[in-house]
Design brief:
heterodimer; A: 76 residues; mainly alpha; Non-ribosomal Peptide Synthetase Peptidyl Carrier Protein, Chain A; B: mainly alpha; two-stranded antiparallel sheet; 40% helix; 9% strand
Chain lengths: 76, 296
């Protein structure tokens, strides 16, 4: 697990109130427990705060899985 | 088919609700509610059937206002925010109609929000005041109609609602039409709603999208623009009621907006600051972001 995955998985786990070990690259909205459209925004804001970045509005709705968030961060 | 607003159709045709499915759920193939609906469509839908769908009310009551400040802080207007969501719903509906061979379609719109003071519980969560939620409903309706007019790929589509019979020109609910804060009473409204929907379906050959007419009040409201109004939100708590919407025309007159807002059980006289999105500076944007965090 690289450092970016640690940050993103930790943010997801904290928002969803799940153990971080249960989060992986396959975790996503509507599949992972407690991850819905409401908590999705919480996750993105948490990642923004942890990393000091801001996602573009046009990206927000596409960022609904741990993989998509990490891939977006890797592009920046 | 759809959310709990399908209840008014009970006893009339096949009625199925997988639960509080949102418009966003309907656009997601991974969502269990959507998968439930697809299972029913697969099992029962016959080519030539008509589909009446009820989705969107949950989004407008609980999701849009909660998410919107995050988008607004990134320069997205409320009109564009809702249009982005509705356009995805419209595409998902088109896909459903084509996939299962439905002959005609009606989206049944949400009723007006209950008047403030109605007690809600955790099963029927909401954010925003009556007027705020009504504005969101109106913008959702308007967006869907714009999609129908601009993308008439499936011409046998209709949209209908009693919403514009339930509000006044200030977008306030004229009375409490809903029994539990959210739903219309099927005994009072079931027959009239079924009659409206049946007429749309039975006259489908003449149902041209350009003929959509929701009455004088819709025509009056359709060109209004809305902006959020900022104030010091530091006292706002997660479950608070508050109203931060005004007509842009009112804002331009720089008049004090003396609407009362409620924060938890305390009632506070609103002292809003009118801000246009194009004049926002970074401090104001950060304040909105903070609001978004506090709401969530």
């Amino acid at each position: 697990m690289n450092s970016l995955e640690v940050v993103v998985f930790s943010a997801i786990a904290e928002v969803l109130n799940l153990p971080v070990t249960s989060i992986n690259l396959e975790s996503k909205i509507d599949v992972t427990e407690n991850w819905d459209s409401l908590t999705n925004m919480d996750i993105l804001l948490k990642v923004e705060d942890l990393l000091g970045i801001t996602f573009a509005a046009s990206d927000l709705e596409q960022l609904n899985s741990s993989r998509s968030i990490i891939e977006k961060l890797q592009l920046n | 088919m759809g959310d709990s607003h399908t209840w008014v159709f009970r006893g009339r045709g096949v009625v199925y609700s997988p639960g509080p499915i949102t418009a966003r759920n309907f656009t997601s193939e991974n969502n269990s509610y959507k998968q439930d609906l697809d299972s029913v469509f697969n099992a029962m839908a016959k080519s030539g059937d008509s589909l009446v769908l009820c989705v969107g009310e949950v989004d407008m009551r609980a999701h849009y206002w909660r998410d919107f400040p995050v988008f607004y802080a990134r320069g997205v207007s409320i009109e564009q925010f809702i249009m982005n969501n509705v356009a995805k719903l419209y595409d998902a509906i088109q896909l459903t109609l084509n996939t299962y061979g439905f002959d005609s379609f009606v989206l049944w719109g949400a009723p007006a929000a209950s008047i403030e003071g109605k007690l809600y519980n955790k099963d029927l969560p909401f954010v925003g005041s009556t007027t705020t939620r009504n504005i969101l409903i109106h913008l959702f309706n308007l967006s869907f109609i714009k999609c129908m007019l601009s993308n008439p790929k499936f011409h046998k589509m209709g949209f209908s609602t009693l919403f514009y019979n339930m509000i006044d020109a200030q977008v306030n609910s004229t009375t409490n039409f809903v029994t539990d804060g959210v739903h219309l009473d099927e005994k009072l409204y079931g027959n009239v709603i079924w009659e409206i929907v049946s007429q749309i379906i039975s006259n489908r050959s003449e149902m041209v999208n350009e003929k959509i007419a929701l009455g004088a009040l819709f025509d009056q409201l359709k060109d209004h623009s809305y902006r959020p109004v900022l104030k010091n939100f530091t006292a706002v708590e997660r479950d608070s009621l508050f109203d931060t919407w005004i007509l842009l025309d009112d804002a331009s007159m720089n008049l004090p907006y003396d609407r009362k807002i409620s924060i938890s059980t305390a009632e506070i006289k609103g002292d809003f600051i009118f801000v246009r999105s194009d004049s926002m500076n970074q401090i104001e944007k950060s304040e909105i972001k903070q609001l978004a965090l506090e709401i969530q």
